[in-house]
């Protein structure tokens, strides 16, 4: 068993209303010095075998077709 | 003596505030609007936190509203016994503010669901349910995407054991809530949160095909008349 | 280097990428003529978007004029076509404004955001009339239910509408959901919004008064939906980073909700002289249209536009379709009050320019003039085409291949159940349960009723006095329109009109969304011309004016166009909303009556589609006079309290109408068919029919009313029991009807 | 400017219907060998100063009070 992480974030040029709402709220809560917040998704994919190149390739395909919407999102895949 | 004054809080993105105010008026009370950015409860006798999408439900439902200036007044007042009812987003805010235990999470079906739902009043002794008979069955609309009530096992057990599960879904569990829980109260019974919307079941003509929601409003008003 | 007016004058022969921006050579040359020089790249950006099909209606204009020239006299019409949305007088000092618009292509590319921003756009149109948006509806078409494309697109579209509309707090009170192979690769997502306002508070998109300030407020401008601008940027600037900008716009419903509340306070405080939403073509459209309708001039400093991405170039700012933005014209003395209201709602607002009387729209960037044009030439004087059209070559053969040759069923029970479970007739609850139909507490009727009905009193401050309500329905049948676009458009109107009338509301006005293939195809253009002619003629006969709408062309996959799909929305009014007629069989012991006449009309019917996959022949005959009489008695009977329940008879005929009426409240009924041929009685889709229930004691009075208006009225039987019984034909428990009706969508989408 | 990452995941005992739906869809899409998927959130917090201990402490507080609901979620903070 191995854990592969897929991080999915909105592309930088795409509006992130959630991140903006959080960033706007921070000063009110007494947090200063934050320039920007972006919110994305994190997937923990537990695979049955080892996280070898073949498995990673599979997860990459999964990210490309299912986990991320590549019209508006970028993703990255890594082993934890 | 004048009618009881029930505050209705508006956060940015609150939707059901006017409906709540109308339901309070219909029940004979005075609705007092409270603005999230004011540190002022305007001397109300009770507070209603209505549903909606405060702050767009961004981050988590209720997560940002919880920090509103008004909440700094409301939390200590509620802890001191001020009756507070939160429905839907209001319930979510009460959980985020730790006035109620547990949390409301994504519906198990992953979709927003708007339906007329049968529920049962499990506790008719709280500030907001005194006008119902124990075990009374009601038809109330639910409409939410994140209404699945969860809490750790010990909390659930103690809620059940102490009668703090105030309302429970019947027939279908619309969101996958633990034990079909639709609403809970704090220990003192003055703070109640529920996912269904009583304010949309108070008139024959509009809303859900029932007027079963009236009891929540008459409960609180009678309480003040009887004081 | 900035492409300024000065530079353009000095470099008349610089090649410009007008073709990539979708402009024809003669269009480009006209711009050069108007300006007396080559346009700057910013001016080219403005003209190319303003003269696009989408913004200029250049192919449809010559036809759409009929909605004006043939418009029936209507005292209710306060603002007609040409504004952001039409406005109708609904009595007691109140007015309603409503409009339907397409977001088809964006919803195919990114279903969730495409559909969400479609709702956002139409809501801002309604706000720009000075109204409070009070409800939305959505009219949807997808490919076959089991097509992979539908599985990808439909859930996202529904989620987008649900996410955006629910978050705004606008009840969704109706719509349509239909499936047909012709929409594979080209779904239709049409969104309708209705708003209310005091009759004397209508706002218009106009910028009068030199010296008045131009304020941009709402979201900051980012690189959204500026595929076109990237052509310009890369051509002019050879800058790689600008070459690939997203075509997708992302919606922020929370910002839109703040904008709504903010705008309403601005209207209430009376600090707005003119207002315009920013939709397609963003700042280009808002500035040219406001200026063209006002004193005629405006000066704008583009550097002042608040940006989400500081690297945006002026061309990109002009073309950006960033959502949740509005533009207002404000008297200088009111600016502080205006800004204070925006601040209270956390809505960013910036003065970006002012109104002038120069007759020119002038924009600067870094101190240089980059735009200097007569705004009317971009906003109103775009190209107008008389596109050639002719009847499609296969039309006669299609019409000749009628349903007479189709084998008719002997087992009508099985036929009804299979129709109920077929995608077009099946329950849409999987979709509609994702929409909030109760928010704001004024929803009187919503799905599955024939029309959505709202109470007016209590929606708005000051409206408590009125008992009135409004009713809205949308309808469109692409199969009928394919067989005969003239009749098809009329049948769409007739059905929406009837759906409004069955609730007891008096139909008042019409909006429409015309979804067609490419106007450059003469056969498609014929369909379009016929549909518009049909709709305009029918509006005249029914006495309901078109107040606005939207045209969506280029709905096709490759060379294959969708079925012509005119979607028609009708708005009606109830003088006393308490007298609205409920949907279906509400209680046992009522008489069931069928109003109207049933003929053997199965061309384009749901039965032919489901049982034989057949489309041919002619659609049911249009009977506008009969529709008028039917509506008249429905409205009168509702006013007199004679009707208990009702349901319109359309897709799937009387059989489906009876089944839906029984399922509505779980009350069955027993009926005897009036005609000779049970199949025709049950499945024909003859128009101008409705099913009503009355108390036995009201029957005489109602029958008399029908006789006086010459509306055929057949006494079918009575409500009651746990099943639907058609004597000598079929018996089906309501639970079995429901099982067939409800299983279809979940089986596909909940798996 | 520095970027601090906050990962927020539902506690293991809390049902994650989104992750489950993904896991269920995978075999249909031709992916095998995945034992479990869990979906959480990833926040990219851009801070104005350096990501020193004080700044990280601030972000941790932010995560504890705002970004995560510790009744149901765990979080971790790291510099990227
Ligand atoms: N996409 C949709 N959005 C909202 N409501 C819808 C949608 N599709 C269907 N409905 C509602 O579901 C009900 C049934 O739809 P439909 O079968 O098309 O009705 P009808 O045959 O009477 O026109 C109606 O109340 C309609 O308004
Ligand atoms: Mg209908």
What do these coordinates show?
The complex is a heterotetramer, with two copies of chain A (80 residues), one copy of chain B (227 residues) and one copy of chain C (751 residues). Chain A is of the alpha+beta class. Chain A has a single domain (2-79), classed as 2-Layer Sandwich (Mth169, Chain: A), CATH 3.30.1280. Chain A contains two helices and three strands, in the order βαβαβ. Chain A has a three-stranded antiparallel β-sheet. The termini of chain A are close together. With 227 residues, chain B is of the alpha/beta class. Chain B has one domain (5-226): 3-Layer(aba) Sandwich (Rossmann fold), CATH 3.40.50.880. In chain B, a hairpin with a 5-residue loop joins strand 10 and strand 11. The longest helix of chain B is centred in the last third of the chain and has 13 residues, at 214-226. Chain B starts with a strand and ends with a helix. In chain C, strands 22-24-26-23-27-25-28-29 form an eight-stranded mixed β-sheet, with helices on both faces. Chain C has a domain at 581-751: Phosphoribosyl-aminoimidazole Synthetase, Chain A, domain 2 (Alpha-Beta Complex). With 751 residues, chain C is an alpha+beta fold. In chain C, helix 7 runs parallel beside helix 8. Chain C contains 26 helices and 29 strands. The complex binds adenosine-5'-diphosphate and magnesium ion (MG). The site of adenosine-5'-diphosphate has 18 residues of chain C, from strand 4, strand 5 and helix 17.
Key words describing this protein structure:
heterotetramer, A: 80 residues, alpha+beta, Mth169, Chain: A, 3-stranded antiparallel β-sheet, 30% helix, B: 227 residues, alpha/beta, Rossmann fold, 9-stranded mixed β-sheet, two-stranded antiparallel sheet, 5 helices, 22% helix, binds adenosine-5'-diphosphate, binds magnesium ion
């Amino acid at each position: 068993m191995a854990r592969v992480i897929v991080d999915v974030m909105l592309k930088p040029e795409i509006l992130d209303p959630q991140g903006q709402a959080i960033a706007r709220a921070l000063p009110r809560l007494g947090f200063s010095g934050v320039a920007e917040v972006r919110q994305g998704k994190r997937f923990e994919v537990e695979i049955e075998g080892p996280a070898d190149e073949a498995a990673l390739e599979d997860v990459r395909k999964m990210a490309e077709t299912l986990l991320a919407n590549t019209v508006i999102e970028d993703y990255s895949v890594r082993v934890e | 003596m004048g009618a009881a004054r029930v505050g209705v809080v508006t956060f940015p993105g609150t939707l059901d505030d006017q409906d709540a105010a109308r339901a309070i008026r219909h029940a004979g009370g005075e609705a007092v609007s409270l603005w999230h950015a004011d540190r002022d409860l305007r001397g109300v006798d009770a507070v209603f936190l209505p549903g909606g999408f405060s702050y767009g439900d961004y981050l988590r439902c209720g997560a940002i509203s919880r920090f509103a200036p008004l909440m700094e007044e409301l939390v200590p007042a509620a802890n001191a016994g001020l009756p507070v009812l939160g429905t839907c987003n209001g319930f979510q805010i009460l959980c985020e503010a730790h006035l109620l235990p547990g949390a409301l999470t994504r519906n198990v079906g992953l979709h927003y669901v708007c339906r007329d739902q049968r529920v049962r009043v499990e506790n008719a002794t709280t500030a907001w349910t005194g006008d119902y008979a124990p075990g009374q069955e009601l038809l109330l609309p639910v409409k939410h995407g994140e209404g699945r009530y969860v809490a750790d096992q010990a909390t659930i057990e103690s809620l059940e054991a102490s009668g703090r599960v105030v309302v429970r879904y019947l027939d279908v569990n619309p969101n996958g809530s633990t034990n079909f829980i639709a609403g809970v109260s704090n220990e003192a019974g003055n703070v109640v949160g529920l996912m269904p919307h009583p304010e949309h079941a108070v008139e024959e003509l509009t809303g859900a095909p029932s007027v079963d929601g009236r009891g929540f409003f008459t409960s609180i008003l009678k309480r003040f008349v009887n004081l | 280097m900035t492409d300024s007016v000065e530079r353009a004058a000095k470099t008349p022969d610089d090649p410009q990428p007008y073709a990539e921006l979708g402009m024809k050579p003669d269009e480009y040359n006209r711009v050069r003529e108007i300006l007396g020089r080559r346009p700057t790249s910013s001016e080219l950006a403005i003209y190319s978007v303003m003269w696009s099909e989408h913004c200029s209606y250049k192919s449809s204009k010559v036809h759409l004029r009929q909605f004006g020239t043939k418009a029936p006299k209507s005292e209710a019409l306060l603002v007609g076509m040409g504004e952001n949305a039409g406005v109708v007088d609904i009595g007691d000092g109140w007015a309603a404004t409503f409009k339907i618009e397409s977001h088809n292509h964006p919803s195919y590319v990114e279903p969730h955001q495409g559909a969400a921003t479609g709702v956002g756009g139409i809501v801002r149109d309604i706000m720009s009339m000075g109204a409070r948006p009070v409800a939305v509806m959505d009219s949807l078409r997808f490919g076959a239910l089991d097509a992979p494309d539908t599985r990808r697109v439909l859930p996202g579209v529904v989620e987008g509408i649900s996410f955006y509309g629910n978050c705004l707090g606008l009840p969704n009170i109706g719509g349509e959901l239909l499936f047909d192979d012709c929409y594979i690769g080209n779904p239709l997502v049409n969104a309708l919004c209705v708003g209310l306002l005091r009759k004397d508070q209508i706002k218009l998109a106009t910028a009068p008064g030199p010296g008045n300030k131009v304020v941009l407020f709402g979201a900051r401008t980012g690189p959204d939906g500026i595929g076109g601008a990237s052509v310009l940027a890369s051509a002019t600037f050879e800058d790689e980073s600008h070459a690939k900008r997203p075509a997708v716009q992302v919606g922020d419903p929370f910002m839109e909700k703040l904008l709504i509340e903010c705008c309403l306070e601005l209207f209430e405080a009376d600090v707005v002289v003119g207002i315009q939403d920013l939709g397609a073509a963003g700042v280009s459209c808002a500035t040219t249209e406001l200026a063209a309708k006002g004193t005629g001039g405006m000066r704008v400093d583009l550097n002042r536009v608040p940006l989400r991405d500081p690297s945006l170039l002026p061309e990109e700012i002009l073309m950006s379709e960033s959502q949740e933005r509005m533009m207002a014209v404000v008297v200088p003395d009111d600016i502080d009050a205006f800004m204070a209201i925006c601040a209270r709602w956390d809505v960013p607002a910036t003065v970006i320019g002012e109104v002038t009387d120069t007759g020119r729209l002038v924009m600067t960037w870094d101190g240089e003039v980059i735009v200097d044009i007569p705004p009317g030439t971009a906003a109103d004087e775009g190209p107008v085409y008389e596109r050639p059209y002719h009847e499609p070559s296969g039309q006669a053969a299609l019409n000749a291949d009628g349903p007479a040759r189709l084998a008719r069923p002997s087992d009508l029970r099985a036929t009804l159940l299979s129709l109920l479970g077929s995608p077009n007739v099946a329950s849409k609850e999987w979709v509609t349960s994702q929409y909030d139909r109760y928010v704001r507490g004024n929803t009187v009727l919503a799905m599955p009723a024939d029309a959505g009905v709202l109470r007016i009193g209590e929606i708005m401050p000051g409206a408590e006095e009125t008992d009135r309500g409004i009713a809205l329905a949308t309808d469109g049948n692409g199969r009928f329109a394919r067989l005969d676009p003239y009749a098809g458009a009329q049948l769409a109107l007739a059905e929406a009109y009837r759906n409004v009338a069955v609730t007891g509301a008096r139909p008042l006005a019409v909006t429409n969304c015309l979804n067609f293939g490419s106007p450059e195809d003469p056969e498609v253009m014929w369909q379009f011309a016929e549909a518009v002619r049909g709709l305009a003629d029918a509006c005249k006969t029914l006495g309901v004016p078109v107040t606005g709408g939207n045209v969506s062309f280029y709905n096709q996959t490759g060379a294959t166009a969708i079925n012509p799909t005119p979607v028609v929305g009708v708005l009606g009014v109830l003088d006393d909303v308490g007298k609205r007629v409920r949907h279906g069989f509400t209680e046992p012991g009522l008489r069931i009556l069928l109003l109207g006449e049933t003929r053997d009309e199965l061309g384009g019917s749901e039965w032919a589609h489901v049982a034989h996959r057949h489309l041919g022949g002619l659609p049911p005959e249009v009977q506008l006079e009969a529709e008028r009489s039917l509506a008249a008695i429905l409205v009168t009977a509702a006013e007199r309290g004679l009707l208990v329940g009702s349901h319109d008879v359309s897709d799937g005929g009387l059989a489906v109408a009876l089944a839906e009426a029984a399922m509505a409240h779980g009350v069955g009924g027993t009926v005897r068919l009036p005609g000779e041929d049970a199949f025709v009685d049950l499945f024909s889709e003859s128009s101008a029919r409705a099913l009503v229930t009355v108390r036995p004691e009201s029957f005489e009075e109602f029958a008399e009313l029908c006789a006086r208006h010459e509306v055929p009225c057949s006494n079918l039987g009575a409500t009651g029991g746990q099943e639907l019984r058609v004597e000598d034909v079929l018996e089906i428990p309501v639970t079995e009807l429901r099982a067939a009706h409800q299983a279809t969508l979940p089986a596909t989408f909940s798996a």
